[in-house]
Design brief:
- The strands form 2 sheets. Strands 2-1-5-4-3-6-7 form a 7-stranded mixed beta sheet, with helices on both faces.
- It is of the alpha/beta class.
- Helix 7 packs across helix 9.
- The N and C termini lie far apart (49 Å).
- Helix content is 34%, strand content 19%.
Length: 279
């Protein structure tokens, strides 16, 4: 290999992979690029959470396709043998990487890194860009695909935006709060302020990766809320507004009570950015 080594582009990597349908017909990467969104589904028959998620993915896939959406899924197997792959894939209505193309499977695992399965990468194939590496969460939060193609939003549920392990996050927890207008209003307030703040930073020429904080929220159905409470030792009941700064191993908790408004969120965030909040 030449030096310096340059990783392959999505086109270069995927162009060498053997995609196939249930009839064994070969599907090219150029064929896949005709879709508005391609989902790479890393899964296996031996994986319990995969088998639990696959039926919902099938329902969402069929709903979107029936609605005329240009959406395709590609099964990337981690099965241990061809018969297990064939049995599991037999229940799926989409495409797959041929099980005999183990080199192609390795290529996709390297192109779309993940810590475990099931993992669903959402890709704008035509542009060669990843839309989300947490497609599973997006599907579970939007089972009818009303927000297809799930483009990134300025403020997202925890796990869908910045990695909580590498960025400071202005966080709103609602796991102990009753569902209702008050909870919804606080989420909308966080979204409105976060969107405005990011637009302000962008107008100053700041790159998104350099923004000093991100914004996120979660309720009891969000898989990160319980680990965050465990990591931080946070016992205050929701609604809880705080800055989670995992890299610095610190948290900064809003001293107010009730459901935070946009003004509350703005004042709290500005105090954090000014360095005036006690940790």
């Amino acid at each position: 290999a030449g030096f310096p080594w340059v990783p392959p582009t999505m086109d270069e990597a995927c162009g060498s992979v053997s995609f196939t349908d249930h009839d064994g017909a070969k599907i090219t990467w150029d064929d896949l690029k005709k879709n508005d969104l391609v989902a790479f589904y890393f899964s296996a028959s031996w994986c319990g959470p995969c088998r639990a998620f696959t039926p919902q993915l099938i329902k969402t896939y069929k709903k979107l396709r029936a609605d005329g959406k240009k959406f395709q899924v590609v099964f990337v197997s981690s099965d241990r043998d061809a018969s297990s792959f064939a049995e599991y894939y037999g229940h799926m209505p989409w495409l797959a990487v041929s099980y005999t193309d183990q080199a192609g499977i390795r290529t996709l695992n390297e192109l779309f890194p993940h810590r475990g399965i099931p993992t669903l990468y959402l890709v704008d194939a035509a542009k060669g860009k990843v839309v989300s590496d947490s497609g599973r969460g997006k599907i579970m939060a939007d089972k009818n695909g009303e927000n297809f193609p799930w483009l990134p939003q300025p403020v997202e549920p925890l796990g869908d935006g910045s990695d909580v392990n590498t960025a400071a996050i202005v966080t709103l927890l609602l796991d102990h709060a009753p569902d209702g207008d008050a909870s919804d209003a606080s989420v909308e307030a966080l979204k409105a302020y976060g969107k405005a703040k990011k637009e302000e930073w962008a107008s100053k020429g700041e790159e998104e990766d350099d923004y000093p904080v991100d914004f996120g929220y979660g309720d009891e159905e969000n898989g990160l809320v319980a680990p965050i409470r465990g990591f931080t030792g946070l016992t205050k009941k929701a609604p809880v507004l705080f800055v989670l700064d995992v890299p610095a191993r610190k948290k900064y908790i809003w001293s107010g009570s009730g459901y935070p408004t946009k003004d509350d969120i703005a004042a709290f965030t500005e105090s954090y950015l000014a360095g005036s909040l006690p940790a």
